[in-house]
Amino acid sequence: MADSSSQPSVMSEQEKRASLGLAGIFSMRMLGLFMILPVMSLYTEHLNGITPVLLGLSISIYGLTQALLQIPFGLMSDRFGRKKIITIGLLLFVAGSVVAALSTTIYGIILGRALQGSGAVAAAIMALAADLTLEQNRTKIMATIGISIGISFGIAMVLGPLLASVVGLQGIFWFTAILATVGIFILHNVVPDAKKLSVHKDAEPIPALMGKVLKDTQLLRLDFGIFCLHLVMTAMFVVLPLVLRGKLGIAADHHWMVYLPVLGLSVVAMLPFIILAEKKRKMKVVFVSAVASLSLASLGLYLFSGHLWGMLGSLFVFFTAFNLLEASLPSLISKIAFAGGKGTAMGVYSSSQFFGAFCGGLMGGLVWSNYGLASVFLACGGILFIWFIVALSMKAPRHMSSLLKHVEIETSEQARQITDKLLAVKGVLDVGISVDDSTAYLKVDNELLDEVALEAIIPTNQATG
Prior knowledge:
By secondary structure, this protein is mainly alpha-helical. It is built from 16 helices and 4 strands. About 70% of the residues lie in helices and about 5% in strands. It has a 4-stranded antiparallel β-sheet with strand order 2-3-1-4, covered by helices on one side. Helix 10 runs antiparallel to helix 11 and helix 10 packs parallel to helix 12.
């Protein structure tokens, strides 16, 4: 077993470059996808043949191609190289943006959005991030990427309406093409080259583990949750811009004045609940309460769709709960997934998220065409109530962290022997050892962990998350 205690826990310059570069690529791509949400329904009304269902499809079709292709893209990056696959994905995103920008029909925009989603590079980016970092620093780069996605969403809600008022919908698509092109430049000029490609069970899906993940009912509850969350969010944005303009009389170029304070205040409001969930170990109570609040907020959007302050209050509650759940669900996946199964569990989770977005656009269009704009909010509230019932049956997650340790082993028998020793250590709850990448994946309770006993088995080289 290797003693890598001399390896620093502070990120190296190369790791910092990788972290910032990959987070930049991820966030620019997601910014391009998110900016469409608050403006699509406002700027496609003039297109011939436009219907509520086609509008919803144009908003959400990217989710279908993303859900279908992100795991295959990640697996292809194992075989053909990370940067090559990421470049192909970004070029597909550029192509989709150009197709949408040049389109004069809703069908062309749908095709462009589908192409945008087909550049599904999330898993490949996570794998490259793992290639470029030591085990003890890997969670830092993953956290940086995760934070960048949240920031992108907030910026998109404000920048989308502002940009559309100046350059129109086509201009936004040209802007997203430029963002993806800049992402390719960053990939090849800022992000370092990985010296070796490895399969990382904590960062990417492993086909052999897929069956075990899909049989875990606790993980499936979370997959259903993220499906519902993004279904509702996408369905809401099929009609919300039209409600703001039509029922509340807010001009399209002023919608950012609604989104900016609501989103900003919601981020501040969710922080005490995150502390309560993590520090006070009230995760299930906070989680279930957030789902209930989201359902009630959707009902509020339906009841107050013609009242400014009622809508603003409902949107504040909605986005506070949405942001809280968006932050909590990945944490729950990490806590519940078996040792060595986090990457696979996150792959299924992400696919569920994007498939939910796809279904949300379709549902929003269908409900709108049959029952009216505000009825979409009521339908969202019903779906969220079903999620609330499902969430009530989830087990309260154990408070544990992920720990990675490098081990020099060559056989499965060695892995079994070390696993038995590790499981006997106080505070070690689960162990998975991979011979392929010489890594021990542990789930531990930090408050109970006997670090001296753990150190005696494997010398210090760790990363918690």
